[in-house]
UniProtKB/TrEMBL annotation:
One of its GO terms (molecular function) is riboflavin synthase activity. Signal peptide: none annotated. Pathway: Cofactor biosynthesis; riboflavin biosynthesis; riboflavin from 2-hydroxy-3-oxobutyl phosphate and 5-amino-6-(D-ribitylamino)uracil: step 2/2. It comes from Paracoccus versutus (Thiobacillus versutus). Catalyzes the dismutation of two molecules of 6,7-dimethyl-8-ribityllumazine, resulting in the formation of riboflavin and 5-amino-6-(D-ribitylamino)uracil. InterPro entries: ATP_synth_asu-like_sf, Lumazine-bd, Lumazine-bd_dom, Riboflavin_synthase-like_b-brl. Keywords: Repeat, Riboflavin biosynthesis, Transferase. It catalyses: 2 6,7-dimethyl-8-(1-D-ribityl)lumazine + H(+) = 5-amino-6-(D-ribitylamino)uracil + riboflavin. Its EC number is 2.5.1.9. This is Riboflavin synthase.
Length: 197
């Protein structure tokens, strides 16, 4: 489990296809304290550390994960920067919201405009996921916990404050970019209960 509070920006340094995709990610984490088998959310995707060095870790990424995330459309090439978050430990501060790292789909950035120091971003969600997104609810986009401002059909808006832009990759996005979308787990269960009647 994660919180959607990004703790590092990593960079893809190597990609290999060996059945699954293996990616090497450079980071600033103290890797001596990260066990093999640990989970790290990479742009919101929960991935398992399978090898590590002083300032890098390797992950294997299945075809299923590639097909459900922005890796499938954009690929991960050397130089790609990623939002990173280590798994939540008991006693850690829960500053965002509960995030599983299981990406539900991909949202497309349609519009961006400055509002004061912040940037308002409008995205289009896959139609099947749009019903789970509610004003003042939470979503995880590229692993970042964000509050939904407004919803209109399958379009929704978020504001990204200057601090978030500075400590994540949100300061680098452009219209047309695709973001990994994880809907709020609570929204999923509330909708399921409503269907059950």
């Amino acid at each position: 489990m994660f919180t959607g509070i990004i703790t590092d920006i990593g960079e893809v340094s190597r990609v290999e296809m060996r059945g699954d995709m293996r990616a090497r990610i450079s980071c600033h984490y103290e890797m001596a304290g990260v066990d093999l088998g640990a989970s790290i959310a990479c742009d919101g995707i929960c991935l398992t550390v399978v090898e590590k060095g002083a300032d890098w870790f390797d992950v294997d990424i299945s075809a299923e994960t590639i097909s459900k995330t922005n890796i499938g459309a954009n690929g991960w090439a050397p130089g790609k920067r990623l939002n990173l978050e280590r798994a939540l430990r008991v006693g850690d501060e829960l500053g965002g919201h509960i995030v599983s790292g299981h990406v539900d789909g991909v949202a497309v950035i349609e519009e961006m405009r400055d509002e004061g120091g912040s940037t308002r971003i409008t995205l289009r969600a896959p139609r099947a996921l749009a019903r789970f997104i509610a004003p003042k609810g939470s979503v995880a986009l590229n692993g970042t916990s964000l509050t939904v401002n407004e919803v209109e059909g399958d379009r929704f808006g978020v504001n990204v404050i200057p601090h978030t832009q500075a400590v994540t990759t949100w300061g680098e996005v452009q219209p047309g970019d695709e973001a990994n979308l994880e809907i709020d787990t609570l929204a999923r269960y509330v909708a399921r209960l409503a269907e059950a009647g």
